[in-house]
Design a protein that fits this description.
- The structure holds 2 protein chains of 2 kinds.
- Chain A is an all-alpha fold.
- In chain A, strands 1-2 form a two-stranded antiparallel ribbon.
- In chain A, α12 runs antiparallel to α13 and α18 packs across α20.
- Chain A is globular.
- In chain B, the strands form 4 sheets. In chain B, strands 1-2-9 form a 3-stranded antiparallel β-sheet.
- In chain B, 66% of the residues lie in helices and 5% in strands.
- Chains A and B meet through α2, α16, α17, α19 and α23 of A and α1, α3, α4, α9 and α13 of B.
Chain lengths: 586, 510
């Protein structure tokens, strides 16, 4: 028997180095390294000095950013309806809080990391206060802040034991509260700055809401069985809810709702339920198949110009539910063997039909907001284009990827040609295509909004790129998965949806997040076709105000910072996710 | 790709399977229904576009390429374009100028930053990392517009005494202007000589190199080849007009294109389409041939054969029944060879001539073409934007490629006594290059496509010029098709070049 005096439960020996030792090893290990360090340090200080003396020069008009922050957020959204914006943000904040609780629980972060972060922040604040051409008072405040941070870091580095971990969300909450507090403190320090309470109070309220939602989520976590699935559904619902209902403020036309929409909804839910019950009956497969075929043919006919006039109804109110019902009926028999699952498909249909009817009415009614131009702009438009664009592009991309890897040649050729053509041309040509071409495709009576046109163009563009990512995932699935799925008797639809796609998508999550970030950055191009997203505000709107002529650089830097914050956060989150999933190590 | 078809049981043919359960039938029925729906929608859409165009008084004609346009272009070969084609051509050349110079600069910068990302010096590593993380997380359009604003608001005003090197280099709100060599009339004659010289020197190099490998004697292959090339280049500088004999070839081609009747061109095109289809079918069948005879063809194989045949026939039909295509090829081919003929017309004089930036008056450069090269603010901002943006992505690719070379290579190199720089140059980079090249090619494609953002800063590349043309003539449909065709062609060219090098450097596995 081998004896050992090592305690198997002991932590591994600490690998953290003394700061001075780290500096010596990494910066001054040899003569060449020392020279390099000195040269680069001189360059960095010089560059920083240049940037800071540019950024803090007295003639910089940073107040052009501060006083136009609402233009950046929502552009010309009317002041009287601004609660709608806060309500939308509130929905997002609550869902975020709940989601963090549902997925992450109580994540921890090493105390040493927090200490290092504080030390680096202190050093940066010190450096900035030394190099910037600011007034003596501000410089002293900066120096004191930096020194305090450094001192705190040093003291806690001595005091906190190695391996100690802090709750990550606590740290984030403290930072958020500090950032919020700075909204009150900064205007005191910097004289001409002013932040209205209509901004600060709702922001504080939203932060509190987020924290409350997180606590509620932690309480719900052990009690609600399928919290994560429910949240995914709520997230998906929140996008059209915010866009079509809250921000658009639809003017409900009650006569049409009672006279047209309600009866149509009743016909489709009740009739659809009976139809589903019939086609999912395992004893009547042939009759069910014939019924399905008739329904599909009817749908196709309804969508052709053969049915171009419908005497008493707008045509889309029938066409769209009919199409969804047809797809539902095609898919249903694959997923319903037992009576219980047959009931499930019907309940699902009623839910989908209801949500769809609601959004059809909300999306097609007029807006109650009194504005001349597009009702949203600024960051809101950027987010809308990227989120809705992604939501449309993602299923389209999956379909294209399945088509491209299909054994059926016509699907393959069509998908391949589409993907390669779209990937071969720049986004701006597709945006022009959307802006100039799309109206030509449609009958002259139908006019579509320029935001919708840009949305379609971005979705068509993103789908081709997402399809290539998904294809990578599909090709990583071994043949054994297909064979065993067939062996247990799944049909092609079941195999694809239940076996192949879940594995394929999981394998390419990092690539998909990367593509999502790229699409987010690409939305800035709608500026060229004349929409006022955040970049257009910085380039055209703010410098166009008489008091802020020539303030492009400040505003562009601000916009660059906003974009950077979003994309950097997302890419870091995706790296965490990648490590957590261990993709590539399985 | 693996085949996922279930194999049919031998008795499948005898048992009567109802049609709606026959997998092959269902598959093809589904695809044909899909195709019919797709073609139907395309047909309706195209008819709708035609109706809408007619309603607003426009037609789908390409005449604008040949008709005068009434605008000027701020920079490029034709700053006063006579026709729509000249305007678009100027835009294309401007786009290619940024693309080619941008690819070179972005590659150099990207490789340097990528290596710096892996430096053992923490400060160098940190600076490179912050560079990459800053640049690639900000949309390119924001960067380009920022650079434009920076040039226009921060750079000094232009006057005679300004410029870091007055007379040679000016940096001002009008852009960056510096002395440059410009090709003259005899440039292309000289170019032919250079190409011939290059080929000859390359063969000399190969021979001397082989000789060294066989005999072991130092043959100084590189030095001899370079010397020969330089001698030929210098000689050709003076005697290049002899290549004017090529003008006879081009004038013959011009008159051939001008004298050929349209119908013969149509026949040639139709024959080409049929020949291409036949070639595809033949090669395809050859590839399916095994020593035991022709392999059993799958559905997919039949589909390819049939569609190749159908496409060939359709192509031939279009060539025969749409005379415009043959006519356009003849006209534009004749014009092209006439243009080339002018470049080889026994031109005399030096092929290249230097020119310094010359100010006509304070605040204005004369005409950039004859007086030094000017990077206009638009060119400068687009160029800087795409170079910095692409270099950040290239840096990440280079870093990934270097990390992917196995650690044993580093250790073996160090064990042999190589210095760090030698190790990188001789061992790591050549191996990393194999991994780097395919994603690098993707970045080149992105760079080429990103030059289209020039439209936002009024740099006259092909999108900006196209936009001006359709604003003037209302030919939006044609211009969008033109853009797509042009960018697809550039993309295909770049990927063909990258693929060629990729095939050459990949390890051949058997």
């Amino acid at each position: 028997m081998v004896t050992t005096d090592l305690d198997p439960k002991a932590a591994p020996p600490s690998t953290t180095l003394h700061p001075m030792r780290w500096v010596k090893d990494n910066l001054f290990s040899s003569a060449w390294n020392t020279a390099l360090t000195v040269a680069v340090a001189a360059g960095v200080v010089g560059a920083l000095f240049g940037i800071l003396s540019f950024a803090f020069a007295p003639e910089r008009q940073w107040n052009s950013v501060v006083s136009n922050i609402r233009l950046y957020a929502t552009f010309a959204y009317p002041e009287s309806d601004y609660w709608r914006v806060w309500a939308s943000l509130g929905i997002v904040v609550v869902l975020t809080g709940l989601s963090i609780a549902a997925w992450a629980g109580r994540p921890l972060v090493a105390a040493s990391k927090v200490i290092r972060g504080a030390a680096i922040a202190g050093a940066i604040v010190l450096l900035i206060s030394v190099l910037s051409p600011v007034s003596a008072g501000v410089r002293v405040i900066g120096l004191v802040t930096g020194l305090v941070l450094l001192l705190l870091a040093f003291v806690s580095w001595k005091a906190v034991p190695v391996g100690k971990e802090l709750p990550l969300l606590g740290v984030v909450a403290v930072l958020a509260v500090l950032a919020l507090a700075s909204l009150w403190i900064l205007p005191i320090l910097i004289d001409p700055m002013e932040i209205a309470p209509t901004t600060t109070i709702p922001l504080a309220f939203e932060l509190a809401l987020g924290i409350a939602a997180y606590l509620v989520g932690m309480w719900l976590r052990p009690q609600v069985r399928r919290l994560q699935s429910i949240l995914v559904g709520l997230w998906l619902l929140s996008v059209p809810l915010i866009y079509m209902v809250i921000l658009r403020a639809p003017a409900w036309d009650w006569d049409a709702i009672v006279g047209e929409d309600l009866p149509i909804w009743l016909v489709f839910t009740i009739g659809g339920s009976f139809l589903l019950w019939f086609v999912t009956d395992p004893k009547r497969t042939t009759a069910g198949g014939v019924t399905t075929a008739i329904l599909v043919l009817g749908t196709i006919v309804a969508w052709t110009p053969l049915v171009a006039t419908w005497p008493w109804l707008p045509l889309y109110k029938v066409r769209i539910p009919l199409l969804v019902l047809a797809l539902w009926v095609i898919a249903a028999p694959s997923f319903s063997g037992s009576t219980e699952s047959r009931r499930g498909t019907i309940v699902g249909w009623v839910g989908v039909a209801t949500v769809m009817a609601f959004f059809l009415v909300a999306g097609t009614s007029g807006s109650a907001l009194v504005i001349q131009t597009n009702f949203i702009g600024g960051l809101l438009l950027t987010l809308l284009l990227s989120i809705v664009g992604l939501l449309i592009a993602f299923p389209l991309g999956i379909l294209l990827a399945l088509g491209r890897t299909s054994t059926m040649p016509i699907f393959r050729v069509v998908s391949t040609v589409y993907i390669e053509v779209v990937r071969g041309v720049p986004l701006i040509t597709i945006l022009f295509f959307g802006a100039l071409f799309l109206p030509l495709f449609l009958p002259s009576e139908i006019r579509i909004d320029s935001v919708i046109r840009a949305l379609i163009a971005i979705s068509l563009f993103g789908a081709a790129y997402l399809a290539e990512n998904v294809r990578g995932g599909l090709q990583s699935i071994s043949t054994g998965q297909y064979e065993s799925a067939k062996a247990v008797g799944l049909n092609t639809v079941q195999m694809t949806l239940l076996i192949i796609l879940p594995q394929a998508l999981r394998a390419v999550i990092p690539a998909l997040v990367g593509q999502a970030i790229a699409i987010f950055k690409d939305t800035s191009l709608v500026f060229i076709i004349g929409l006022t997203e955040i970049l257009a505000v910085a380039q055209k709107v703010v410098p166009g105000q008489p008091s802020f002529v020539g303030s492009q650089r400040e505003n562009l830097l601000f916009v660059a910072f906003v974009y950077w914050m979003f994309t950097f956060t997302f890419s870091r989150a995706s790296q965490r996710l990648e490590r957590k999933l261990g993709v590539g190590e399985r | 790709m693996t085949s996922r078809k279930t194999t049919k049981s031998p008795s499948a043919g005898k048992q009567s399977v109802p049609l709606w359960r026959n997998a092959t039938f269902l598959k093809w029925a589904l695809q044909i229904v899909f195709l019919v729906v797709l073609i139907g929608f395309a047909w309706i859409a195209i008819r709708q576009v035609g109706d809408n165009l007619r309603r607003i008084g426009l037609d789908f004609s390409w005449d604008f390429l040949d008709e005068p346009v009434g605008f000027q272009i701020s920079e490029g070969i034709f700053i006063n374009p006579q026709t729509g084609w000249q305007a678009l051509f100027t835009g294309m050349v401007n786009m290619l100028r940024i693309t080619v110079s941008g690819i070179v600069a972005a590659t150099i910068l990207g490789v340097l930053v990528g290596i710096a990302r892996l430096s053992r010096n923490a400060l160098v590593k940190g600076v490179a990392t912050s560079y990459v993380e800053t640049i690639r997380n900000i949309p390119l359009l924001v960067q380009i517009i920022f650079w434009l604003a920076f040039v226009q608001l921060t750079f000094p005003k232009l006057d005679l005494e300004s410029g870091p090197i007055p007379g040679w280099l000016y940096v001002s709100r009008k852009g960056v202007s510096f002395a440059w060599l410009f090709p003259q009339d005899s440039f292309w004659q000289w170019m032919v000589a250079l190409i011939i010289g290059g080929v000859v020197s390359y063969y000399l190099y190969r021979r001397l190199f082989h000789k060294r490998e066989e005999t072991g004697q130092e043959t100084h292959a590189g030095a001899w080849a370079l010397g020969l090339f330089l001698i030929l280049a210098v000689a050709a500088w003076f005697i290049n007009p002899i290549f004017g004999v090529l003008s006879y070839v081009f004038s013959a081609l011009t008159s051939l294109f001008e004298s050929l009747p349209t119908f013969s061109m149509q026949l040639i095109l139709a024959a080409l389409a049929l020949f291409a289809a036949w070639l595809f079918v033949k090669r395809f069948l050859d590839s399916r041939r095994t020593p035991a005879g022709l392999a059993k063809l799958t559905d997919d194989d039949y589909f390819r054969l049939v569609s190749a045949g159908v496409l060939g026939v359709i192509g031939a039909g279009i060539a025969l029944f749409v005379p415009g295509i043959g006519e356009a090829i003849l006209t534009w081919g004749g014009r092209f060879f006439e243009f080339v003929h002018g470049k080889f017309d026994f031109n005399t004089g030096a092929p290249l001539q230097g020119a310094r930036p010359a100010l006509v008056q304070a605040g204005l450069f004369a005409n950039y073409e004859e007086t030094g090269l000017t990077m206009s603010p638009g060119f400068f901002s687009v160029w800087l934007g795409v170079v910095l943006y692409t270099s950040a992505f290239i840096a990440e690719i280079v870093r990934g490629g270097i990390l992917a070379v196995s650690k044993g290579q580093t250790e073996a190199g160090l064990a042999m006594g190589l210095r760090r720089s030698q190790l990188l140059r001789l061992i790591i980079l050549p191996q990393a290059f194999r991994i780097i090249l395919p994603p690098l090619g993707n970045q080149y494609l992105n760079l080429a496509k990103n030059t289209s953002l020039g439209v936002a800063v009024a740099f006259p590349e092909v999108v900006a010029v196209g936009q001006t043309v359709f604003n003037q003539r209302g030919v939006s449909v044609q211009i969008i098709l033109f853009w797509m065709a042009f960018y697809l062609m550039v993309s295909l060219t770049i990927s063909a070049i990258v693929n060629y090098f990729n095939r050459r450097i990949q390890l051949v596995e058997r």
